[in-house]
Amino acid sequence: MKVTRIAYSARLNPGKYAALVEQARRLGRVRSEVWQRYGSIAGVGSGLADRQVRDRWLVDGTHIRFGVLANAWKETLRDAMADIAANLEAAKVDVRRAISRRTNDPAERKRMFTALKADQWASDPFLARQMRKHWKRGRNRTHHQIVVRADKYNTAVDRRGLLWLAVPGLEPRKMVRIPLSTTVAPTGTLRLILRSGRVEVHYQIDAAQMRSSQRPCGDRRLGVDKGYTEALTDSDSQPHGVGLGVMLSSESDRLKERNRRRAKLRSIANSAALRGDHAKAHRITVNNLGAVKRDRQAARHRARVRTEIFTAVHEVVDEAGTVIAEDLTKRFTGRKKLPKNINRRLATWTKGVTAEALKSVSERRGSALVLVNAAYTSQTCHHCGRFGRRSGDRFHCTSCGVAWQADVNAAINILHRAGDPDIALHTPHHVVKQILQDRNDRHRTRLPVQDSSPTTAGRRANYPNCSAMSNE
Ligand SMILES: [Zn+2]
């Protein structure tokens, strides 16, 4: 598994930055050309490889007009072809769905899946039609990136301990030296992204090399419930990532206040422009409504939340060899956009990070991640199985006469779902409710019968869950 790391430039000379921006702009034209020529069915879709395209360009002289070094355009061409291929693969997901809808015949399905995989869909009318429908012709939007191959750059540490990255510029043998704000040298292929006066150096490392990947996992089985005050609560009543709630609410307050101020400034700028005071409007737009500071603050907040959540998951995996969790990816895989309300938007995003952390940490540290259907796990009592009432962080069960800690109650229910023979991951919500209700009804009728008469035995055999539940 690969993990992306980002290094940042530190106080980069504006002249060097401008030179890099110019190089990226020219390489953006290379990308546009690749998308223009090969971004459709005639290009990658017909099985054309980046090497063949490269050779064609060398023959017809396409590369000359871009005014960049040979390695730079070749790497960019390869990168753009990979983008197109990814675009194509995304379209195939929809086509696969269409195939499943079209036929139930396993042999026919298999034939079509295979043809699709091997890019041999052009000869099949149905597949060709579906591909044309789902593969929207894309275009290049990347004009601020430079891809540098591993053997084309070098790093060096100066006397003050500062790390410098030297990458090729627009002239042969003239490297652009970039001071970095880290002491860890990037490795492998680099993607330089130029953003608001700063260079971001993106590169990938093998997750196995990360220190945290070498930590062994625990040997217990733990259920976890995602929360808002804390990132996770486990079935042992232990909270993890307790700083999350404060982080999210203070960020939400900050964003609301900032958006309010920006809206006010924007209206002042607009009315100044209407009056004809364009100098003032321009001043406000440039000095007070910029994106640099805003984007950096947002990135910092995201990084803090990610660290909190990943740390929480690591804590759970320290104890657990098997983590049982709700499938958090389920509800937002669709095309639904993030909600407009800030609190809800942060919550949705946090859920995605938690899902990613659970998957990534489990993979790296060798623990098993079991995803379960979490329907009604926060509304039923883990002790008796009845429906109860949640108020704030308490869960009241009138049947047991007990108030449980709501997150812990849910985490224990989630833990039990892993062994539930009736409730599968995709069992619909209303079916889950029915199953739980039936169990409660049965429980009630069974309770007074204490002997092992045939009726009781028969009931037990018909409903294996009751015994399974009370045994756990
Ligand atoms: Zn109860």
UniProtKB/TrEMBL annotation:
It comes from the Bacteria. Residues 440-472 are annotated as: Disordered. GO terms for molecular function: DNA binding. The lineage of its organism: Bacteria, Bacillati, Actinomycetota, Actinomycetes, Micromonosporales. Pfam families: Cas12f1-like_TNB. The keyword Cytoplasm does not apply. Keywords: DNA-binding. This is IS605 OrfB family transposase. The keyword Lipoprotein does not apply. Residues 357-414 form the Cas12f1-like TNB domain.
